[in-house]
Design goal:
Elements lengths: L2 E7 L7 H5 L5 E5 L4 E6 L2 E7 L5 H11 L3 E6 L10 H20 L5 E5 L6 H14 L3 E5 L10 H13 L2 E5 L14 H20 L2 H4 L6 E3 L6 H14 L1 H4 L14 E3 L5 H11 L4 E2 L15 H5 L5 H16 L7 H8 L1
Parallel strand pairs: 1-5, 5-6, 6-7, 7-8, 8-9, 9-10, 10-11
Antiparallel strand pairs: 2-3, 3-4
EC number: 4.1.1.45
Protein name: 2-amino-3-carboxymuconate-6-semialdehyde decarboxylase
Subunit structure: Monomer.
């Protein structure tokens, strides 16, 4: 059983948001041919993509090629609309959540979906999660911050508590990366700032004492191996022990809380994966590929499936059973997908 919990999609098309709302720089799709397109932000190129983003048959070909039984899809963060009025972000959430469920419906049981919500307005976001869960989503993907508001913001904690009450898995993805003026070249925003953003989010929840206030039933996962968290956990623990301003709101050192969240396996290196499992424990790492983008795994699950640094028990947990626990589903729910894949 192999489950990929981190992949993205774009619909083949969606309404003209700039025309609907009368404001510029909304994302839209510029198709080149049947297999290639460019996501635009107003008149600027955002990202080239392929039909794997919107064609479930192409996606399933790749799942079959690499032996993946089930893949969880979520929108690409550029579609969040967090910088727009909340009612406009809700309109976008409804469009892209419906598009995700359409892909799921056409996937012969091979895909499941996480929703997006207008995170800037807590009541709307909570209602959107509840509606998404009723409609068949397994949970929600959120960005890791809103401007200067980190995940320990009281409004976000209310939202996370609501997700726990609804049984919704929460996948945290970095976006709107810090210091873009310092990292304009070589995709350094993705290579450096994404990792820093993710560590910032995890430590914000830990050092603020937020995990002490959130229910243990909350299932939350951080993308890209938790960013730089695992590598720098020793530094954070050392600071907690020796500086009162670090530990003033957290009754325990950061390492105490590694059993409160998951990280995906998208680290692309054997030694990094071994460190991640050693830090988080074998029950807290789930397979994530970041498919179908160039910075994702080009052969889905290859690192976890082939590395010599994992035991068979660790490999099985990361490939499948941990994902079942994070997503809140039973293995029986994907037996149809496995049967279809075998055909």
């Amino acid at each position: 059983m192999i489950i990929d919990i981190h992949s993205h999609f774009f619909p083949k098309q969606w309404p003209d948001l700039a025309e609907k709302f009368g404001t510029p720089n909304w994302p839209w799709m510029k198709h080149i041919d049947g297999e290639r397109a460019t996501v635009m932000l107003g008149d600027k190129v955002f990202r080239p993509i392929t039909s794997a983003c919107w064609d479930p048959d192409k996606r399933i070909e790749d799942l079959d090629r690499d032996g993946v039984d089930l893949q969880v899809i979520c929108a690409t963060p550029v579609l969040f609309g967090y910088d727009r009025p909340a009612d406009q972000a809700l309109y976008c959430a409804d469009i892209f959540n419906d598009a995700a469920l359409d892909l799921v419906a056409r996937s012969h049981g091979r895909l499941k979906a996480l929703a997006q919500v207008p995170l800037q307005e807590t009541d709307l976001a909570c209602a959107a999660v509840s509606r998404a869960m009723r409609n068949g989503h397994l949970g929600v993907q959120i960005g890791n911050h809103l401007g200067e508001r980190e995940l320990d913001d009281p409004a976000f904690l209310t939202f996370l508590h609501h997700c726990a009450d609804e049984g919704a898995a929460v996948f945290v993805h970095p976006w709107d990366m810090m210091a873009p003026e310092r990292m304009p070249r070589y995709m350094l925003g993705w290579l450096v700032a994404m990792a820093a953003e993710t560590q910032l989010s995890i430590l914000s929840l830990i050092l603020s004492g937020a995990f002490e206030r959130l229910p243990k039933s909350l299932r939350i996962c951080f993308a890209h191996g938790g960013g730089s968290f695992a590598y720098l956990l020793g530094r954070a623990d050392n600071a907690w022990h020796h500086r009162d301003i670090v530990r003033k709101d957290s009754p325990h050192p950061p390492s105490h809380y590694v059993d409160r969240f998951y990280c995906d396996s998208a680290v692309f290196d054997d030694k990094a994966l071994r460190l991640l499992v050693d830090v988080m424990g074998k029950e807290r790492v789930v397979l994530g590929t970041d498919y179908p983008f160039p910075l994702g795994e080009q052969r889905l699950g290859h690192l976890v499936g082939t590395t010599s640094v994992l035991s068979d028990e660790e490999r099985a947990a990361i490939q499948g059973s941990n994902a079942l626990a994070f997503l809140g589903i039973e293995e029986a729910e994907i037996t149809g997908a496995r049967a279809y894949a075998a055909e």
